[in-house]
Amino acid sequence: MVTVASSAALSCPEISLSNGLNIPILGLGTSHQGGYSHEAVVYALQQCGIRHIDTAKRYGCEEALGKAVVESDVPREQIWLTTKLWPADYGYQSTKQACRESCARLGVDYLDLYLMHWPDSMVSGRSNREVREETWRALEELYDEGLCHAIGVSNFLISHLNELKDVGGAVPHVNQVEFHPFQQPMKLVEHCQKEGIVFEGYCPLAKGQALTHPTILQLAQKYGCSASQICIRWSIQNGVVTIPKSTKPERIHENCQVFGFSLDDSDMAAMRLLHDGRRVSWDPSHVE
């Protein structure tokens, strides 16, 4: 059992959303299939000073996460809490119901950020585009009501973002997409920046695949840090909100130690050369 002690918030830069709210550039990711640890979340909040936690209904850990937040004794208003709407709940009424159910499981009165998890709607008999537009309208109303302080999407490509723009809806505050040395969708990053959408990256370590790459290991030796810290620092220096996942307290602590150094321009460029289009998560390119 890890002994925890109260800690001040991590000295972590923030990125401003288009509505003026600030999201910490580093957070803790969670997931299903063994990707959640109550002990680790409490440790991250109390001992590491993490103030940004990312989850989703799909992961099945919202209720447990809510209990960890309470146990940490960190005031709710100091934590940026993101969860996601699963496509099976897309649609106007079902979106609103799902949002309220997520809040209830988390034990909170509002969400800092609520994301559409995937561009595919999973609703039979209707086009993905139609369902996405209807779902987004529901998110806009949840935002206007104050239940969601920011709204966004996940795994959306430029075409999906342009659809929302074409119907005159609000611009998403965030687009959360897989981003790591092997998967660098820079055109999408640039599009989001141009449109005022904050780009957030998950799987920054490529599910561990990046940690044994020779270039990354060489940089870790050069900077006197770990391979994971190189990957996270590279992502952050690209202006990407970064949410590494770990269930091990010692790894979470390590992943937070990325603000005491910077990669020089030549090393940033060397990391750019590692892009090979490899995905370790879902591929949204087939979704119309």
Automatic annotation (TrEMBL):
KW Glycosyltransferase (keyword) present: no
Protein residues bound to substrate: 117
Spans traversing the lipid bilayer: none
GO terms assigned for molecular function: oxidoreductase activity
Pfam family, one: Aldo_ket_red
Residues covered by the NADP-dependent oxidoreductase domain: 27-272
Phosphoprotein as UniProt keyword: no
Keywords: Oxidoreductase
Alphabetized SUPFAM superfamilies for the sequence: NAD(P)-linked oxidoreductase
InterPro entries on file: AKR (IPR020471), Aldo/ket_reductase_CS (IPR018170), NAD(P)_OxRdtase_dom_sf (IPR036812), NADP_OxRdtase_dom (IPR023210)
Site-annotated residues for Lowers pKa of active site Tyr: 84
Domain of life from the UniProt record: Eukaryota
Active site residues according to the UniProt entry: 59 (proton donor)
Family note: Belongs to the aldo/keto reductase family.
Protein name, per record: Putative oxidoreductase
